[in-house]
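seq:
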Amino acid sequence: MKKIKLDIVGLSYSQTQSGAYALVLGEVSGRRRLPIIIGSFEAQAIAIEIEKMTPSRPLTHDLFKSFAQAYSINIQEIIIYNLVDGIFYSKLICSDGKKVVEIDARTSDAIAMAVRFECPIFTYEFILSSAGIVIEGNDFVYLENINEPNEENAVTTAATGGGYGGLSTDELKSKLSEALAEESYEKAAKIRDELNKRKAS
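struct:
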């Protein structure tokens, strides 16, 4: 069965399920998108790696990566291989250089590992045909809409770069350190974006 390569094109707070996030995978060289609802912990795990943040202590997926590398195990690719009753099934294709092993995994965990090992993500045509959506453009932006479920003024916060425009650069750097120490990675991402915007201007 021919595999179709996917890229991560978006990650946002789910509008349909409270406390959940929508991970959007896009068909490479195509217009189809595959939205997958994941939990907040997995969304954070994916987001901080995409944004190249370093948590104060290793997260579960970071521990798994370190453990695998300590024994010379590499993840070659991720395959979303089935869809049953709205649930996606995925597997990690791992190798130690001598043999290849397939490991079953939740799709959210598989994607979190894919971004850490920088390995490709694949699926099959029947999954994209049944669960994919076709869009004219890319309406999703990394982390732009990630907010805490109970955060007020979420739309305004996302549009203004996190509401940190009134703080000085030193204050922002201090808040960034605090956010990382508290493992509040969504907040850290917004502060970092504001700092980067000031550097560019």
